[in-house]
Design goal:
The protein is mainly β. 12% of the residues lie in helices and 32% in strands. It has a single domain, classed as Acyl-CoA thioesterase, double hotdog domain (Porin, Beta Barrel), CATH 2.40.160.210. An 11-stranded antiparallel beta sheet has the order 1-3-4-5-2-8-11-10-9-7-6. Helix 1 runs antiparallel to helix 3. The chain starts with a strand and ends with a strand.
Length: 241
């Protein structure tokens, strides 16, 4: 059994954790080969010698992950102190789609039109909240084809959960917009390499399909040299505010 606690700074919606960050933390808790949730050094390659957090772990969030709360992990499940099931971690199907790269300059231009600047359902989100001065500052803007792109300057404390977080919101902003709030329901990530602190990366997002309140998306992280670092497949769920 592993004990986890999500620090308050890693919030998504007010009072709960950012879905991508928490999913990466949960996946790492069940990945003994990696050395835990922050396993791996920047620039390290993950090539099959590592376990689920790197080779296609799938995390399904069953409840909004609570902040500053001791969580227990047993047999691929994450529980709150009252026994409520917060998340499940399984071996996901391969993530076989990458959103094509775009130049960093194009991502910068796209970010200038980020819809979250005009109105954001969760303005203090650790990843994409414009109200934060200590977050990841990933502001995914739409390109003419409906995909999203954002520049990302990698923080000094980059870790595996940080990369899962970076792969989260750029997909969500293919469906988020005025009057529409969505949260992450499930995400599967495959990592190839952890970016270097200070590296100028690009994150891409693309909508696959929407059915009712559920939307399927893909995201991909590219390094400063244009090489793919990580990719994800996710399901976002529309909620009422």
């Amino acid at each position: 059994m592993t004990a986890l606690r999500i620090a308050a700074r890693f919030n998504g919606p007010p009072g709960s954790g950012n879905g991508g960050y928490c999913a990466g933390l949960f996946a790492g808790a069940f990945d003994g080969a990696s050395g835990g949730a922050s396993g791996g050094a920047p620039g390290a390659a993950f090539d099959g010698a590592f376990g689920g957090a790197f080779e296609g772990a799938e995390v399904t969030l069953r409840l909004p992950p609570p902040l500053e709360t001791p969580l227990s992990t047993v047999d691929g499940r994450v529980y709150a102190p009252d026994g409520a099931l917060v998340a499940e971690v399984t071996a996901g199907a391969p993530v076989d789609v990458a959103v094509p790269p775009v130049p960093h300059a194009d991502a910068v231009r796209a970010a200038s039109g980020y819809r979250g600047f005009a109105g954001h359902p969760f303005g203090s989100c650790y990843v994409c909240g414009p109200d934060r001065d200590d977050g990841l500052a990933i502001f995914p803007g739409l390109l003419p084809d409906g995909t999203t792109a954002a520049p990302w300057t990698v923080p000094a404390d980059v870790s595996v959960p940080t990369v899962w977080a970076a792969l989260d919101c750029p997909g969500g902003w293919t469906v988020l917009g005025p009057g529409r709030a969505c949260v992450l329901g499930r995400i599967t990530v495959r990592m190839k390499e952890l970016p270097e602190p200070g590296e100028e990366c690009v994150v891409r997002g693309a909508l696959v399909a929407t059915q009712g309140r559920k939307s399927s998306v893909h995201t991909t992280l590219y390094g400063a040299d244009g090489a793919e670092l990580a990719r994800a497949r996710a399901t976002w769920i529309e909620i009422d505010l």
